[in-house]
Design goal:
The complex is a heterodimer. By secondary structure, chain A is mostly helical. Helices cover about 70% and strands about 0% of the residues of chain A. Chain A has two domains: about 60 residues, no CATH class; about 230 residues, Orthogonal Bundle (MetI-like fold), CATH 1.10.3720.10. Chain A has 14 helices and two strands, in the order ααββαααααααααααα. Chain B has a domain of about 190 residues: D-Maltodextrin-Binding Protein, domain 2 (3-Layer(aba) Sandwich), CATH 3.40.190.10.
Amino acid sequence: MANVGSAVKSRNGVFRQMANQKYLIMLALPAFVLTLVFSYIPLAGWFIAFSDYQLGFSFFSGEWTGLKQFRLFFGETSDAFNIIRNTFAMNIMSLVGGLGIAFVFSLLIKEVASGKAKRLIQIITFFPYFMSWVILYSVIYSLFSTSSGAINVFLVDIGILKEGLNILGDKKYSWTLIVLVNIWNTLGYNSVIFLASISNVPADLYEAASIDGAGRLQKAISITIPYMVPTLLVLFIMNSGWILNSGLDQYFVFTNPTNRPTMEVFDMYIYRYGIKLMNYSYATAVGIIKAIVSIVILYGVNMLSRRLSSRSII
Amino acid sequence: MFSYLKRHRLVSFVVLALIGANVYGSGGKEAAKPPAAGGLYTVPILYNGALATVKKSGETVIGKVIKEKFGIEFEFISMTSDAQERMNMMLAAGDYPEILRIEGLDIISKYIKAGAALPLDDFVANSRYFKDRFKEQIPLWKLTGNGKLYNWDWLEPQQFEVGLDINDVGVRTDVLEQQGWPNLLSEDDYVAFLKKGLADNPVTNGQKTIGMVVPFAESWGMSLTNVMIEKGGDYIDTGDNLSTCWNQAEGRFEDVFLNRYTQENIRFFNRLYREGLLDKECFTDFGTQVSEKLNSGRALSVFYTLWLAGGANSELIKSGNPGMQYINMPIRTNAQAKENTKRQIRVEITRPFDSYIITKNAKDPKRLFELLDWASSEEGQVLLQSGVEGIHYTVKDGKRVPTEAFVTGMASDPEYAEKNGFNIFSFLGAAKTFAADGQAYNLLLDANFRDKITLTERQMEAYKKLGWKNSLEYWLKTGVSAPVGLIARVVIDQDNELSMLNQKVTQFRYQAAATLITAASEAEYKKLLAGILEDYKKLNAQRVIDEYNRVYNELKAGLKN
């Protein structure tokens, strides 16, 4: 009786709490519904990775094939090795490079005296983040295409190069190209987040440091950077979960027959086999592998961060 | 368990939502209501590309005749996305139009298996013209439907003499003129021509001249590395851009990558690349970029994609550079030129990459098939391909003669064909054969009028200077008809595990070709080739070839019975 009574009391308490927080709940509801509809409900489609899915039929009508598609990915060709290597290499380098350079960049922006100049720099560096990859590729193509790219033509004209570098086609430039493009693309966005953490540094700390005779560099090392480190760690942990998520549109425009061995990442591979070659079961299996590895990495980095710095987000 | 579910309401809700949302896999439409008897029947048609002036077929001269006769009008809906992706998405969603163009046997099979395509046997049995027009094609078309007919193809049937569709190399005519109108043929001819051409014309309209352009970045682009197999004497391309080619002499499928002509093709591109004659941007260029280079005249030549050169010629005339126009010239590997055997020229008995079906969403399939049946008649084909007597042609001594308006319109107005309804009714079929009067149905393919209407003055002058009687003379003389019927129907079913291997072998071939073409030296080429062949052996692609031959023999035996 006492248990029933306390259960009723706690249920009423939950409803009362929900009623009190109804506006907060309504605020969160669209995001919840969006996540549920576009991220969780489609997970039922993972079933086709374990069956012989046929277009035009129900997901659950195909013959059960078990782990066949997973074995194909790891077994038949070197696809698994190339895809995983390319994805990890480009994304880790982009993450480390992007965060590192944005970290330093925001420190430098902080030192800019003029508020107007500071804002102008931020606007200019933030701009590429809003451009679509198709436009970005067009810009890069017009700069770096072998025979007509502005930079290649300039370097050939002044005698530095004999002929234009095939940066967009040659696979030895793939990783460098993608990493630099990603750094350029995310510099503004990442530096805004770091600048936000810098703005939280109490001004009296800088005053005290000035009184103690600390120079700009010492202030940056002793005050600014320690305040930015938590933000850096959070960004690093959050982005580590996305290490295997390269973004289809970027690689769709940059991948071509000559650079495919070093440029093809999970998302492009899934698109190629799933949509273009109509191997839906196989592409779904590869997508599942990607998701599981991403979760493992996220938890791993989170745990590592907790061990090393007592900070984590999970 | 019930109390667990009650306590964990959120988890229960998510699980139920997952199950509930996905129990019903693909959507389906309610059965469409047929149009009122005798009323106007408007049929939406997905059109690849964009029509500049026409939204409905009734706005065109030919379409008006069809509308008055049958009460059927077609509404054109432009589509620019990848055709295969679109077809798959439509099937998955159950959202497809009444008549649908399908590319490839595998997709036709999917539509048939899913019950999306309507069987046409009953209509064909009662048809007046369709079964006669396509008597050779119907048994082959039925192979895909397990003995039932579901689809028909565009540009069928075909005759060798009517409108050879050849794509070799588009070459800039002013450079031919500079070099005394050489009759280019072999790889050596092209290398020498392009070298001299670049030396004489280092810059074109302020930009660096390019030797040869190729749109390798297109989804089908890398399949251009094996087209030379068709320029020799023994082999035909199967047209599916996968791992096989057809040995016409021995009557069997073979591995296209290991084919000597494919190897010579790739080596030719590597030679061009090392000599600085192949556009370094070819692997990042799509058709759009290649068109730009042709439109400006920067490219001395274009490999295979002659349809891009057609548009370029108009642009060159507009920009005041008519002398730079491109013409189609033959190419063979050095070995093929030396052997000089008759070239196997595909005459397609079936075209599975250009098929049409009536889907189960059709409101009145009987009426649609009646129109299709009439379109297969002599009257229908003459209307669809030659137009209306008195407007597009007149009849003199029993022969159709194009009118001045038709000739001028086709030659100078890029929208003339569309406004009059030419080439927009591909779903009603277009026979590439002679009509009852002994002329091609399509006057643009008639030998008496073809060059006069379709070529510019500069092009005609170029062929004359080369010593050719007409633009197809070389191929008509050196080619022999190679009918492609049953071999185009051979496909490995997607349920077969070899289908996946077929795809991997094809992707390997494309990658290998790209690697070999960009080898910096002969020594590097040989080293790379040795490694690639070693890796290729591990794939054991012969299993795929054997399967193709097995399926072919099975189908052949089935046809005989």
